[in-house]
Amino acid sequence: MGTTGPPRTFSSVLSVAKREPSAILFAGQVLAVLVYPLLTGSAGRALFSIVGIALLGLVVLAVRGTPGLTAVAVGLALPASALLLIQAATGSDELLPYSSALEAVLYFYAAGAMVAYMVADHEVTRDELWAVGASFTLLAWAFAYSYVVCQAIEPATFTAAVAPTAERDWMELLFMSFTTLSSTGLGDVIPVRSFGRALVMIEQMVGLAFVAMVVSRLVGLTIFRHRA
Predict the structure, then answer these.
(1) Mind giving me the DSSP string for 191-214?
(2) Is the pTM higher than 0.90?
């Protein structure tokens, strides 16, 4: 008798996750962007925390496929997951700055590990191509979590056209992070305090450096192959 459908499907997913962890992480982050706007109210806050924990697991899985130390990723992901679970159980956001700080460090670390993974040799695999998108989204998430911490330390750091004096929610900060990192600069959400502006300027420099690194690597590999 052959193997039934679901086990075989699950085995295939595990195989892809081990072979191309960057693709799984990138897909999970894109899915999270679509899911986050649906998470409203107390139940939505709990689901939001669960989604966050799932993404942390994907980040650790992706780091295992790069030169990054898995122990470092796990050491950051476990306390962050514990804080997210407490928030889901209590429905309180008091611990949000602390979990966001841990997540920011983890995402920055994972992005650095992926960049090291992409430039480690003179060959470009399919997983390395997925790593380009995954590392970009990791950086966007990392800066968004940094903005959450910044807003908690210094309220009214960011303003927007809608409810300018209100605290900016996660989707607004993530949206600002993506537009800043990609140099789109739509200006829907902007920093109005000095430290917030400093973080935005740093993200702008990182975004430009990331694009320059990817383009120069592709051009360099093209020249290397041509000479070879």
Answers:
(1) E-SHHHHHHHHHHHHHHHHHHHHH
(2) no
